[in-house]
Amino acid sequence: MTLTPHQRTVLNYIREFQQKRGYSPSLSDLAVAFDVRSKNAVAKVVNALVRESHLHKDPKGRIKIIDPIESEGHAQPMTLPLFGPISAGFAAPVEEQAEELVTLDDYLVRDRNTTFLLRVRGDSMIDAGIFQGDLVVVQRGKEPRPEDIVVAVLDGEFTLKKLKRQKGKYYLQAENPAYPDMYALDELQVAGVVTSVIRRY
User: Fold this and answer.
1) Domain limits, the chain
2) What is the distance between the alpha carbons of residues 104 and 18, in angstroms, rounded to a whole number?
3) Is 161 a catalytic residue?
4) Active site residue 124
C-alpha cells in the first residue's frame, strides 16, 4: 500500500525525531508537532503505519521505525544513543537526553572494504594509549604521514609503531621509552594506518 502524503510526513518526522534524540516521540509529541488537539487522530496515522510495517509498537505502546533491511532479516549496523558531554575533570551537569544516534560502523570504519582489525600484543605503544589486548582498526590504502600510527612491514616483519621522518628518511618509533627506534636494513613498507582503538574493560 502506498502511503498518503500525510502518513509519509509523519513517518519522516518520527525518523528524524529518533535520529536526533535517541528515542521515539509519544503521541503527545506528535500531536504538538502537527498541531492537532486529539491524540486519537495521531494514533490513527501511527496505527496505519504499524499495519503497513513501517513502525513497530512495543507492549508499552512505544513506537520504533522499522528499517527495510531489518524487516528482510538482515543484520543492522549497531546504532547507540550519544549522550554528553561528560566531564573527565570536575563534576559537571550532563545532558540527560541523547544528542544523536551514532552508528558504530560509520564512526569507526571509513571504508569497510579496506578496513581490518588487529589484536595488539606487547607494550611498545602504551604511551599512545594502546595496550596489550586492544583491537586497532586499520585502514589499508590510506596515505601514511609522519606521526601516524601504522602497521608496518620492517625487513619482512610486521610491527605496530609510529611513523617518523628525519632528514628525508623514514623510521619507526615506539611509544614506550624502553624500546629503541627502528630503522630498515632493507625495506620499510606501510600495510595500513591505525584509525581507532577498541578496548573492552
Assistant:
1) 5-69, 112-198
2) 16
3) yes
4) yes
pLDDT band at 2 (very low <50, low <70, confident <90, very high): confident
Closest by CA to 190, choosing from 175, 168, 169, 170, is 170
Which of 24, 142, 161, 162 is catalytic? The answer is 161
- Structural fold of domain 5-69: Arc Repressor Mutant, subunit A (1.10.10)
Whole-prediction pTM value? Answer: 0.60
Q: pLDDT per residue over 146-192, tens digit each?
A: 999 999 999 999 999 999 999 999 999 999 999 999 999 999 999 99
Cα 173 to Cα 131: distance, rounded to the nearest angstrom:
16
Whose CA is closest to 64, among 131, 9, 14?
A: 14
Residue 37 has pLDDT above 70, yes or no: yes
Length of the chain: 201
The catalytic residue among 24, 124, 142, 162 is 124
Report the CATH superfamily, name and number, of domain 112-198: Umud Fragment, subunit A (2.10.109.10)
Q: Of 18, 102, 99, nearest to 62 (Cα)?
A: 18
